[in-house]
TrEMBL record:
This is MFS general substrate transporter. It comes from Coprinopsis marcescibilis (Agaric fungus). Keywords: Membrane, Transmembrane, Transmembrane helix, Transport. It is found in: Membrane. The chain crosses the membrane at residues 21-48, 60-82, 94-110, 116-142, 154-177, 183-202, 279-296, 316-337, 344-362, 368-394, 406-424, 436-458.
Amino acid sequence: MAKEEGIPGSGHKPIGLRWRASVWFTTLVVGSGIAIDLLVYSIIIPVIPFQLELIGYSDVSALSGWLLFAFSGGLLISTFPIAHVSEKYNDRRWLLIIGFIILIGSLVMMMEAPNYAVMCVARVLQGIGSSFLWVVGLALLADAVPEQLIGQQLGLAMMGMPLGMTLGPPLGGALYSRFGFRGPFVFGIVVSAVDLCGRILVIERKDSVQWGFDPHVLPSKGTKEATNFDDPESKERPAAGIDKVSDLSLSTLEPKEDGPIRKVSLVKTIWTLCKNRRALAAFLVTLVYGVLLSSMEPSVPVHLKEAWGLDSKSVGLVFIAAVVPTLISAPISGYITDKKGGEWVTLPSLLISIPWTGVLIIQGKLALFVVCFGILNFFLSGVVAPVTAELAIVSRNSPGIGYAHVYSAFNVAYGVGTTIGPVIGGQMYDRLPDGWDAVCILGISFLAAGSVVGFAFVGETPLLKRMVAVVKE
């Protein structure tokens, strides 16, 4: 029987091994996946309030908040099981493909939902599909990226967050106006198929090293690509050569401890992470980020409609103008994180976000709102790269704790924030006399709390510790 191409030990190296397993392609796959995930998530934000009104519902801000709650609930309940399976079987690519199938099914269900209850179930399933990407996708990227580039590459991948949030609302508004409720979902299914291509093509590092290519090994001067065993035999080297490969590659191929590292139980994983100062700080900052963004999501479209009379299409355009600046903040913050440390990015990002959240309370000209909303999102999105880089460092320094473990905890923190945020924000907006003002004040409170955490606990040497050392000198 002919040996199957691309399977370690079969004798045939996969076509395009070097670019399919490269850092840049893995970053592209994860980043585009994040962008498409956020696009299909946000494409209905400007649509749902108008659709709910059209089919006869009232209190649409609160109902929209519960739909966002349903998404985050699905994200939350599925995170740890997905992380457990990912680390137990050490297979990222197939789990990403399974997540895609669940995501597509949820979009079809939402598109054909006959009532609000089915909409909620569809959003729960969408949250589960999204969880696969955030847990397994980030773990896949952390597997492939050398430690000295982790912040930069995570920052580049995280450009997908503002990109998806930028494109989603305006596209949703335009497609809803032109084609009705099904329009945004058909578009989401089509672009998700593009994401599937990347998930199928990518090759995990654990497989690529068996074929003579390690993406962790950076190219030295005079070399053309990142490989540390570039010889003629590597073109057709089966898995039997893994011992030689491991000897030649960086220490990251093998654990620093003597003997193999045993994976710890789920309970011990959670306990270990909760005792780790850097991990706990990253979770708290992620929680702040999730609450602030999601508390505004169900309220911004309604606020824009009531304050300036905007329709769904115009609301989408406001999101474009407001979120475009964030496309550059994630890679910049990732670069600074690698060079200086996460503590130098997290605190300034949170502190500078506070006054701009306060200015959003002013109901003056629409241009003022758009500019302030854009500046707020620019600085707020700067916390994501240092937080995810911190968790990668925690994983590498904690025996038995895998990348899927730390990013599942990140997902839980984000899921908790985006679960309670839209419900609180939607209820406050609908129930309080000055609902929008209350939502903004809530955001300021969370930003202030996050700033304290960033000052005292983020980074190898937190800024508070540095300040105390300077005072003592």
